[in-house]
Amino acid sequence: MTAPGEERAIWTIQEAERLLLSLRGVVSARVVARPGGEIEEIHLLTTDEVTPKQTVRNVESALLAHLDVEVDHRKISVAQTSETPARTPEPPGHSTVSLDPSAPPAETRLVFRSHRVESEQAHRVRHRVEIQLKEKRFSGEASAASLPRVRLEAVAEATLNAICAAVASDIDEDEEDGFTLALDGVKVVNAFDRQFVMVAIHALEGRYVTSLSGATVVEDSTDRAAILASLQATDRWVRGRL
Questions:
Q1: How many structural domains does the chain have?
Q2: Are residues 67 and 150 in the same domain?
């Protein structure tokens, strides 16, 4: 929540709608508001896998955690459908993060494909995260001790390494002026009766440093949430590089 006198971060309607579409059960979302202003209405179409009451709570939590936006629950309307929306099938356990839903998927989709964990000696584990961009797959690795906090840091670092590999492959060599994504920290936060994984990242390009952050609700595992939070944090940065 923004402290008194502190400037609230700017957000757009498109960002809010894209965030709502990432919530479980949401088929379509429409936000009525001025960009960066107060939300007047939110209209959602959802499947019956999540109750309307829970969807409203998810919307309130997601907007506050990701965009620092508070919204009155009375402004959120939810309509349900019993029909399952048509989607391109993906292997079980895989998630998709779309960087630009309005563009052709093959051109702009950054897809989380898999996360593998391998045991090493001395109570250490190696994490390997694989993503896909433009029909090409890229992987990143990182190892750490098998402890909760450093484990999540290794998962996030492996994700960032994969993202850097994907971006580097998509830009012209003469445009390459040196860049990297450096993890600042990962933390599990309890809020609104849910668990969130929050990730802080620094994007370094030449002499410029940009602070990035992302947060994702823990649904399957904290590892998976850390991967999705890292993708969410770097969304704008990636789109600016491609």
A1: 2
A2: no
